Amino acid sequence: MGSLFRSETMCLAQLFLQSGTAYECLSALGEKGLVQFRDLNQNVSSFQRKFVGEVKRCEELERILAYLVQEINRADIPLPEGETSPPAPPLKQVLEMQEQLQKLEAELREVTKNKERLRKNLLELTEYTHVLRVSKAFVRRDMQFEPTYEEFPSLENDSLLDYSCMQRLGAKLGFVSGLINQGKAEAFGKTLWRACRGHSIVTHAELEGPLEDPETGEVIKWYVFLISFWGEQIGHKVKKICDCYHCHVYPYPNTAEERREIQEGLNTRIQDLYTVLHKTEDYLRQVLCKAAESVYSRVIQVKKMKAIYHMLNMCSFDVTNKCLIAEVWCPEADLHELRLALEEGSSGASIPSFMNTIPTKETPPTLIRTNKFTEGFQNIVDAYGVGSYREVNPALFTIITFPFLFAVMFGDLGHGFVMFLFALLLVLNEDHPRLSQSQEIVRMFFNGRYILLLMGLFSVYTGLIYNDCFSKSLNLFGSGWNVSAMYSSGHSPAEQRKMMLWNDSVIRHNRVLQLDPSVPGVFRGPYPLGIDPIWNLATNRLTFLNSFKMKMSVILGIIHMTFGVILGIFNHLHFRKKFNIYLVSIPELLFMLCIFGYLVFMIFYKWLVYSAETSRVAPSILIEFINMFLFPASDTGGLYPGQEHVQRLLLVITALSVPVLFLGKPLFLLWLHRGRSCFGVSRSGYTLVRKDSEEEVSLLGSQDIEEGNNQMEDGCREVTCEEFNFGEILMTQVIHSIEYCLGCISNTASYLRLWALSLAHAQLSDVLWAMLMRVGLRVDTTYGVLLLLPVIALFAVLTIFILLIMEGLSAFLHAIRLHCTRASHYCGLSRCGAQAPDAQAQRPWLTGPAAPRHVGSSRTGTRTRVPCIGRWTLNHCA
Amino acid sequence: MLEGAELYFNADHGYLEGLVRGCKAGLLTQRDYINLVQCETLEDLKIHLQTTDYGNFLANQTNPLTVSIIDTEMRKKLCREFEYFRNHSLEPLSTFFTYMTCSYMIDNVILLMNGALQKKSVKEILVKCHPLGRFTEMEAVNIAETPSDLFNAILVETPLAPFFQDCMSENTLDELNIEILRNKLYKSYIEAFYKFCKNHGDVTAEIMCPILEFEADRRAFIITLNSFGTELSKEDRETLYPTCGKLYPEGLRLLAQAEDFEQMKRVADHGVYKALFEAVGDGSGGKTLEDVFYEREVQMNVLAFNRQFHYGVFYAYTKLKEQEIRNVVWIAECISQRHRTKINSYIPIL
C-alpha cells in the first residue's frame, strides 16, 4: 500500500567503477534492473564518446547474427528459443565469440556463394535445354511459313526448304536464340524491328513453367525467342539489343545432330550438377543447424553487451582516468542491493567499485512499483499523466473508483457476471504461454484482466442495486407493494370515500392505473436491496429510474471531485506547503461544496423529509437551485424555513473564495519573496535580508563544487533555484483558477454521463429482449423448442458483441474520461506542489470524452516506470 | 484546370503531400551538418547519419566504406521514396513526376553516349547513371550513330521523344555534337515542363514557374560561361538557350553576344540576378557562381513548402534531397581526402 500510495523515495548515487571491472559491474546491475543512468556526456556527440569502438564491434556482431538468422530462416530451420536469458558475455569470451562468428560467417558466405554459383549454372543449363526444345518447333514452323515472308525474297524461289538448305544459307542467315523476361518481350520485339529496319524476324513462344530469375531470385514467366537476321552489321545490333534487355542468349545449333549432341551433353551435366548441388546443400544445412543452436542466446548476449556499452558511454572519467563515474537514480530501498551488485561485479579486481549518495535538489524520476494486479490500473493512470516524484499516486484509488464508475454505467447483473467469468478465466490461466504471447487484441484483454475482473464484480453489485439481469428484474425478497390493497373491497367505507380506490369499473375503463402509497397496506416498506422489482411492470418505470439515476450520478460525481481535491491536500502536506492548503485547496473546496455540495444536500433533504403523504407539495430541486442564484421576488416556499438566508450565506462564501483562489497564492509568494516583511516596511530591511540569502546561496554552490560535480551538473542544478517571476505565477494561478471554477460546473454536468450510459445500456438490453426472446417465448410449446434454440443462440451472440463488448468499451472509455476529470483537479494541485516546470503546457482542457491526456515529453523525462539500464526485454529479441 | 484546387486537391494527392512534407522534415538540419563536419573518418560519418532519418542504410555494407558507396546508397534511398510517390500518384501528378524524371533521363542518355564514344563498357557507365533516370531502352543507346537514329530506334517510345523534334540531324555524334544535343534536349524539356505547369495553373503554376524560370536562366548563364573559348558560334549558342526564363528575349540576345565573364555579368545587371553575381567571390576566396546558383535554388525550393495544395513540393523535395546528397558527399570527400579547409563550403539547407 505504501509503495502504491506514493512513488518510491529515490536518491542520486555516484558509482565509482574501476575501469577494469566497469563492464562486469554494469552487467550485474543490468541483471538486477535497479537503477536509471543519467547521461553525463550530453554535449558529446555520439561518435566522440569513449566506447564507440566497442559499440561498433557489437553492431558488427549484430550484423553477422542478423545474417545468420536470415540464412537460417531461409533454410527453414526452426530457431530454438531459450526460456532463460543468458547474462552478458564476460569480456574474455567476447573476442572468442567474435572470432567464432566471423569464421562461421566467412564459411557460410563461401558455401552460399558456391551454392549460388551451382544453382546459377544449373539454371542456365535448364534454360538452354528449354530453349533447344522450344526452338526446335520454331524451325519446323519456319519451314512451313517462311515462304510467305517478304523479308526473305531469296527464299521464295526455293519453297522446299530443309536443313541442308538452311545450312547453305548459313553464311548470310544468322540466328540468335535465348530467353527473355515475359514483361519485356513486347518492347524487345518492337525495338528490334525499329533498329534493324525489318531485317530480322523474331519468333517467340511462352515457356510452360515459370523459372527463377538468376539476378533477383524471383520466379517469373519467360519467353523463348529465336531471331533470324541477315548480315553481319545487324547481327551486332541484335546482340547489343539482347544485352540491353537482359536476355539470356544461348548458341543456336545449326544442324539436327549438333542439337542432339548438345542436348545429350546438357542432360549429363545437369545430372552431375544436381548431385553436387545436393551435397552442397546438405553441408550448408549442417552448418546452419549447428549455428542455430546458439544463435538465440548469442543475439541476447550481444544486445546486452551493446546496452552495457551504451551506459558506459554515459559515464564520465575521473581525472586519473582509472575510474569511471556514473550517476544513477536508485530507489532508497534498493541501495543495499545496489552495493551487493557492485561488489559482485568487481569481485575479481583489487580495488572494488563503490558508491556514495549525493544530495541533490533536482526532482528525481517517479518510480511506482506495481505487481500484476496493480499494473493495469497504473497503466490507466499513466495514460493521462505520470505524477511527479513523491506525489500521491491516484492509481491506488483508481482500483476501486474506476471499476465502480464503470459498473454504474454498465449495471446489469447478468452482463457483469459474464464479464466476471471471462476475466476469471483469464486470471486462472494467466501462466498459460499462449495468452502472454498472443496477438494485440487478446493481449489487451489479458493485460487488463484484473480490471475486467473488478469491473465484472462491481457490475454484479450495481446490477443488484438496479435490479437488472438481462433487462429483467429479480424478485428475491418479495415486492414491497401490494396491488390487491388498492381494491375498495378491502377497506372501510370511510377510507373508500377519502381515497381513490379501485373497483371493477375503474379497472375495466382505465388502461393505466396508479398505485397510491398513502393507502394503507399498499406500500409495505422499502425493498431490502436496490430497486423494487414491481417497477419492472410499471409504465412509468423510466421516469422513476431517470430521476433516481440522475440524482445518483450528481452525488457520485461531486463526491469523486471533492475526493480529488482532498488528495491534493495530502500532496501539499507532504511537500510542506501549508499555505497551498489555506490559499488554494480550502477555497476550492468551499467553492465546490457551497454550490454543488449544497445541491447534494438538497437532494438528500428532499429524499428524507418528504414522504408519500407530502410528496405532492414537494418543491422541485431544479427550481430551487436556480432560484438560489436568481433571488426571485416572490417567495416559493422552499424546502425548509430560513432557506433564503442559508443560500445567501453560501453564495457570499463562494464569491469570497474566488478572489482568494485567484490572488491568494501569488500574493503570498510575493510576500515570502520580499523576505517576509510587510509591504510597507522600509527598503533597508529588505536589502539586508536579500544579502543574507545570497550568501547562503553562494555557500551552497561552493559546497556543490567541493563535492566534485562537474560543470554541466552545476548547470543542471541552477535551474532549480529559479527566478521569482510574479507575473508568471499570477498568470499560472489565474489560469488554474478559471479552469477549476469552470471545470466544477462542466464536470458536474459531465458526470451525468453515468446516468445517460446506464440508461442506454438498460434500454438496449430491454430492446434486445423484446425483439428476440419475447418472440421466441411466444410460440406454443410443441414447436417452441425448435425456434427457441436459434433464438437463444442469436440472443447470446448479440448480447456478447453489442452489450458486453461494444457497450463495455464505451462505458470503459467514459470511465477513463471521468478519471481524467478527477485527475485534472488533482494533478492541477500537484503542479503547484512539485515544481514540474512546464506541466502547464501539457494540460489541455479535455473537450471530448475519448481523448486521453497525452504525456508530455518533459514529463516522461522524469518518469521511470522501468527503472534500470533496460530490464532485458526479451520479446524484442524474438 | 479548374479553380479552387484547395477543395479537391486532398482527395487525390493529399496523402502524398502529407508524406512529402513528413519526408522534408527528415532533411538534415544545421545541427546535423555541424556534427558531420566534425567527423574524423567515414565511419564517424556513418554513425552520425545513423542517428538521422537515414537510419542504418549503410548497415549491410561489409566492405570498408567509400564515398561512392555512401553516394549510391543515399541516391537509392531517394529513389525508393520517389518511386513510392510515383507509384501512388494519380494524373496529372504522375505526368508531373514523369517530367521530373526526364531531366535525369537526358543526363543518362548523354552519359551513355559519351561512354560509347570513349569505348567504355555499358556496365561501367550504368553504375554512374542516376537511378531516377533509368529506363529499359537506356542500355541500347550506344547502337545509335546519329541523333535521328537514336530517336527512331530507341527513344521514340520514351517520354523523351517529344523533345527530339528540334535536334533531328544526320550529324555524327562527336563530343561537341553530343553536348549540343544535350542542351537542345534540355531546352525543349524545360520549355515543355514550363508549359505543363503554366497550363496546370493554380498554386502549382505560381510555385513551379519561378523555379523553372530560374532553372532556364541558370542554364543560359552556364552555357554561355562554358562556351567561352570553344568553337561554338554565337548563333548556335543562342539556339541552345531555354526561352522560358526571365531573361527571354532581350537578356538572351545580349547573352548570346557576350564574349567574357564581365560582359555576362553586365547582362545580369538589371534583373533579379544582380545580387547573385555580386555574391560571387573573386578567384580563390569566395563562392563560385555554381554555388551561388545552388543556394538560390535551395532557397526557392524551401519556400515552395510554404504553400499548400500544389505539386511543387515534390519537385522541391527531390531537389533539396539531391542537394543534401551533394552536401554529404562533399563532406565525405573532404574527410576521406583529408582536405578539411574546404569542408565548410557545403550549401546549407535552411
Automatic annotation (TrEMBL), chain B:
Keywords: Hydrogen ion transport, Ion transport, Transport. It comes from Tursiops truncatus. It comes from the Eukaryota. Gene3D superfamilies: ATP synthase (C/AC39) subunit, domain 3, V-type ATP synthase subunit C domain. V-ATPase is a heteromultimeric enzyme made up of two complexes: the ATP-hydrolytic V1 complex and the proton translocation V0 complex. The V1 complex consists of three catalytic AB heterodimers that form a heterohexamer, three peripheral stalks each consisting of EG heterodimers, one central rotor including subunits D and F, and the regulatory subunits C and H. The proton translocation complex V0 consists of the proton transport subunit a, a ring of proteolipid subunits c9c'', rotary subunit d, subunits e and f, and the accessory subunits ATP6AP1/Ac45 and ATP6AP2/PRR. Belongs to the V-ATPase V0D/AC39 subunit family. Pfam families: vATP-synt_AC39. GO terms for cellular component: endosome; proton-transporting V-type ATPase, V0 domain. Subunit of the V0 complex of vacuolar(H+)-ATPase (V-ATPase), a multisubunit enzyme composed of a peripheral complex (V1) that hydrolyzes ATP and a membrane integral complex (V0) that translocates protons. V-ATPase is responsible for acidifying and maintaining the pH of intracellular compartments and in some cell types, is targeted to the plasma membrane, where it is responsible for acidifying the extracellular environment. May play a role in coupling of proton transport and ATP hydrolysis. Regulator of osteoclast fusion and bone formation. PANTHER family: VACUOLAR ATP SYNTHASE SUBUNIT AC39 (PTHR11028). One of its GO terms (molecular function) is proton-transporting ATPase activity, rotational mechanism. The keyword Ion transport applies. This is V-type proton ATPase subunit.
